[in-house]
Amino acid sequence: MPHQAPGALHVTIVVAMGRNRVIGSEGDMPWQMPTSLRNFRKLTIGRPMIMGRKTFQSIGKALDGRDTIVVTRNRGFAADGVHSTTSLAEALRLAATLAARRGVDEVIIAGGGEIYALALPYATRAIVDVIDAEPVGDTVFPELDTADWRLVSTVPLARLPKDEFPASVATYERIGVVKSLPET
């Protein structure tokens, strides 16, 4: 992992994508994968989570045990149990405050495509559920540049009967420069 000061806040991207990098189709996931959803919960519980408005609306509610921060251009956006910001920089500052209150050193980036692309320069880790399929979709996860990222592990996800496809979890760590978080 790149050198960071002790106690530094880590920004972790958590995403499920097909082999073709597709993550969404018409505002929904292009598969049924309960195992991947359980993995998402395990990775995000107890941490501030940043997502775009479309991703939040596809979920439909604030998720329990996590601080949900929604980035939207709509200044009037409001939803129960959700913090709303108009920029990723503002969301990262708020997430840092919420993480400190929770006593954690990690913030989760939970999608969608635009938010992942904007957050990549700040991320120190990416945890990718790779779904063994090539679904049709309209939203893709950006490529991780091998000059900046290193694959550190790939572990199969135990497949449940309701999972449409096999999947594995790939963990990447940044080896390149991490962009400094916006000032609080």
Overall description:
The structure is a single chain. The protein has 184 residues and is an alpha/beta fold. It has a single domain, classed as Dihydrofolate Reductase, subunit A, CATH 3.40.430. 22% of the residues lie in helices and 30% in strands. It has four helices and ten strands. The strands form two sheets. An eight-stranded mixed beta sheet has the order 5-4-3-6-1-7-10-9, sandwiched between helices. A two-stranded antiparallel sheet has the order 2-8. The model is unreliable at 1-6 (pLDDT under 50).
Put the structure in a nutshell.
With 184 residues, the protein is an alpha/beta fold. It has helices at residues 34-44, 53-59, 88-102, 113-119, and strands at residues 10-18, 22-24, 48-52, 67-71, 82-85, 106-109, 125-131, 139-140, 149-156, 167-174.
What features would you highlight for this structure?
single chain; 184 residues; two-stranded antiparallel ribbon; 4 helices; disordered N terminus
* Protein structure class: alpha/beta
Order of SSEs: EEHEHEEHEHEEEE
Report the CATH superfamily: Dihydrofolate Reductase, subunit A
Regions with pLDDT < 50 over 5+ consecutive residues?
A: 1-6
Q: Please give the radius of gyration in angstroms.
A: 16 Å
Q: Kindly, what is the distance between the CA atoms of the first and last residues, rounded to a whole number of angstroms? A: 24 Å
Helical amount among residues, as a percent range? 10-25%
The count of strands amounts to 10
User: What is the strand arrangement across the widest sheet?
Assistant: 5-4-3-6-1-7-10-9
Integer average pLDDT = 93
The total tally of domains equals 1
Secondary-structure arrangement, i.e. CATH architecture: 3-Layer(aba) Sandwich
For the biggest sheet, the summary is: 8 strands, mixed
Strand content bin: 25-35%
CATH topology: Dihydrofolate Reductase, subunit A
Number of helix segments?
Answer: 4
Q: Quick one: CATH class? A: Alpha Beta
Identify the overall geometry.
globular
